Amino acid sequence: MSSAEGAVPTSGARGTARPATMNPQPPMTINHPLRVAIIGGGPGGLYAAALLKRLDPDREITVWERNAPDDTFGFGVVLSDETLGGIEHADPTVYEALQAHFTRWDDIDIVHRNTRQTSGGHGFAALGRKRLLEILHARCHELGVDLRFRSEAPPPRTLSEAYDLVIAADGVHSTTREAYSHVFRPHVAEHHCRYIWLAADFAFESFRFEIAETEHGVMQLHGYPYAADASTVIVEMREEVWQAAGFAELDEAESVERCAKIFAEALGGRPLRSNKSAWTTFRTVVNERWSHGNVVLLGDAAHTAHFSIGSGTKLAVEDALALAACLEEQPTLERALAAYEGERKPVVASTQRAARASLEWFENLGLYLDQPPRQFAFNLLTRSRRVTHDNLRLRDAHFTEAVERDFGCPPGTPPMFTPFRLRGLTLRNRVVVSPMDMYSATDGVPGDFHLVHLGARALGGAGLVMTEMVCVSPEGRITPGCAGLYTGKQGEAWRRIVQFVHAQAPGTAIGVQLGHSGRKGSTKLMWEGIDEPLEDGNWPLVAPSPIPYKPYGQTPRELTRSQLTDIREQFTAAAWRAARAGFDLLELHCAHGYLLSGFLSPLTNRRTDAYGGSLDKRLRFPLEVFDAVRAVWPEERPMTVRISATDWAEGGTTAEDAVRIARAFAAHGADAVDVSTGQVVADEQPEYGRSYQTPYADRIRHATGLPVIAVGAISSWDDVNSLILAGRTDLCALARPHLYDPHWTLHAAAEQGYDGPGVVWPAPYRAGSRRPQTGRTDAPKPRLTLGS
């Protein structure tokens, strides 16, 4: 592959140096930045310098690096094939130099309790960080970049006045970011583990994860080769384990020696070495903005991602590629920096979500120690949710099939199509149609719409179809369109729907979710204004405490003891009608800020009587309701509880609280917990993302041993298979996918080539059981290609 060393033709005015002023706002008048200052000589800053100089040799580019050329911290750097492809297209010279020094391997070894599981086909490439810097130094010198080592960069404001563009690649402790913190608005989160970067003077055969269960707690080793005779070794453990093991009192040499002893088997008895290595806590950096005037953040200054997915250098290099491309593509610097941020922020956010999932998996490693060896390995491999069941099958079908056999999957059966038993009910597969309010009832009576809606989804193949939240009283409705079970007429209407499901979709179970709106009632239909108060026809609201859901909403009355008794009886009467209607399962809605959820959260329960205060007291009324419902619900039929495992708000329910809440319901006879989050307070700040709520279900399942139902942006059958096989959940509830496709489960079977007892096509639909052909789609073009 050839490339040109000359300038890429551009249009627009050239930038010129400007005298320093006292103007605090960085200038933004440059169309094509000619003078570029780069703060930080790490891989991201150096690669940005090389790219920008190569794109325009007339550019004057200066890099300030406080350390000497041969100073480096850390040892090996892992780059993905995707990143290498971008480098190859943008600068073949750098790519070829990297290629000459890469150590490549395919396997991941996971060693736990003297058992090693190996998964292949992963495709890693690594080299020493020092070698990477040498390659980039040489390329920068060749192109004429001014590299200033052992030099502190001038203040960012000074640089922004003297240069057309200032690239802040000054790392996780960025002084540039701090100088303009009022603009960048950084958020830096520290986490629960301590770790230390070390090296070994031999090459691991693979990427190795080793688990050590010590008298002080669980420790883990992350190791990988980066040269023929060297490996990176990271030792990590929770803060309390680090303290208990006495590492806080050890110096660098003593820590290194202790780590080598703990992981002597993995190291073959060989020593570890350090390079000014220190125990530290990982810091996740997120910035609301990445640029200010002509100053732009790059790499760790803009964002960090946990080392367990190996993305720090990768992200910095990709930032440099995108920034260089946007500067060429856009007519002004302002538009280029906006395009750079617009392109990179979603990619980085996705990576950070994956990194957060991986980080938290290792923080909670102790939960998974008793999993069977292969399932433990599968769980580790899929921890970030980027490697999935289907993806791992492509990489290593033999390993994946072995995990499936251990799990109990018959040959050719995806995990989602294995049965699951709750009390006297056996579900033929692990898919649940999640409760979804339809706001389409009249006086609480479900009509033809509900028959068609729930009937269609029952015909669609799911193992369990749930109703929307069915309200236990007129005052317990969310909207005038909400369904109820507080009259005989409503009970008969539900019986009609249940009978249709049982007759036309045999093998599909149907469950009812009972709830009371509490302070979130008397509102408009969703499409008329979600959570907006009715303009007329309001009914009075009740809640644990007189706190409105929204400032302009109705203030509920605090429930008295006698009213609590009345509401408990309303739940039992509704449950009795549900049993007569023939529902197979009953779920008690204790989530999303509705009445029972309002008792559980400290943000909505300010009572000073026996039903408020400590978590045990806040649990009292929901447990009383559960006991009353369980007493009238048929013994052989299962009963579940939906909870909000976090309020996504300071001072609210925590993940630790959720475990205690789940244990309490289990002790009272709950057969499973449906683990949702949030919607308790209006000012919540959820961390959305794919499968974003599933870690809470995972934690409850492993901490309590109680079956769980995972919900929350689970949208693909691959996700369902991954979560089930990893042991993070027992059932997966999907809402929006079933609105998009009522036959989602049938189509998941067709797309996986599955035809077995786990899903049955209704006879009239059998002709549609073969997946239709689709058109061809082409792969995206490389992000930045320089012609010859």
From TrEMBL:
UniProt-listed SUPFAM superfamilies: FAD/NAD(P)-binding domain, FMN-linked oxidoreductases
Example of a GO MF term: NADP binding
Domain of life: Bacteria
Residue span, FAD-binding domain: 164-352
Protein name per Swiss-Prot or TrEMBL: Bifunctional salicylyl-CoA 5-hydroxylase/oxidoreductase
Chain segments carrying region Disordered: 1-28, 765-788
Domain NADH:flavin oxidoreductase/NADH oxidase N-terminal: 416-749
PANTHER family with a match to the protein in the record: BLR3436 PROTEIN, NADPH DEHYDROGENASE C23G7.10C-RELATED
Gene source species: Streptomyces muensis
